């Protein structure tokens, strides 16, 4: 049974369609990389999967025990978010907000999970530090720990390595690979960094305001589009 299904999904802003008829299914433990040029609809689809934007047509369904509120999300970071004046622990704990329901405070279980995720990502010693004083790579680990507080099943990552140096970039992709391969977390990632981002992907979805390709990585590399995109003939 699929964990996520997009059936004939389209999106519009102010009546203008920006993404047309997307169709794909993912199973638990798969790793999808969403590719496409600027403005091709990648972030819009991410918002749809997170239920932050309603499709203008079609349906997005979660299954196999996953609810839409249980998806961990690592958003694209803006400068304002980079300067967020909160402690690392506060940022990570905020990943538990959806699980709090009507409860207006974090409980012991929330704190236990936040500490586990900090430890898992090797950043426990940073827990009392101010988020805005961390390096870009440390900040992304904190945001990943926050996203993991929201889910055991599915992670959505929107440009997770933007602004990171090459070493931190490889480190972050390796962490995501481990979460996918060891913990069987389904991964959906948007990245500009085609070669590295797709290295561990099982599936590719390429958008160009409609669906240009969906299939396995192997199938993608057998298409002219795949070869052109992966070898740099077409950027982003
Ligand atoms: N809030 C909005 N209001 C109106 N149009 C929007 C809005 N957000 C996005 N769009 C338009 O929808 C289209 C798809 O945008 P989207 O951000 O999903 O693309 P993207 O593939 O994520 O781009 P990028 O790689 O630049 O982040 C673009 O033409 C964009 O201008």
From TrEMBL:
Superkingdom, taxonomy of origin: Bacteria
SMART domains: AAA
GO molecular function: ATP binding; ATP hydrolysis activity
Classification via InterPro entries: AAA+_ATPase (IPR003593), ABC_transporter-like_ATP-bd (IPR003439), ABC_transporter-like_CS (IPR017871), Metal_Ion_Import_ABC (IPR050153), P-loop_NTPase (IPR027417)
Protein name, UniProt field: Zinc transport system ATP-binding protein
UniProt family annotation: Belongs to the ABC transporter superfamily.
Pfam family, any one: ABC_tran
Annotated PROSITE patterns: ABC_TRANSPORTER_1, ABC_TRANSPORTER_2
Residue ranges annotated for the ABC transporter domain, each copy included: 4-234
Entry keyword set: ATP-binding, Nucleotide-binding, Transport
Membrane-crossing segments per the record: none
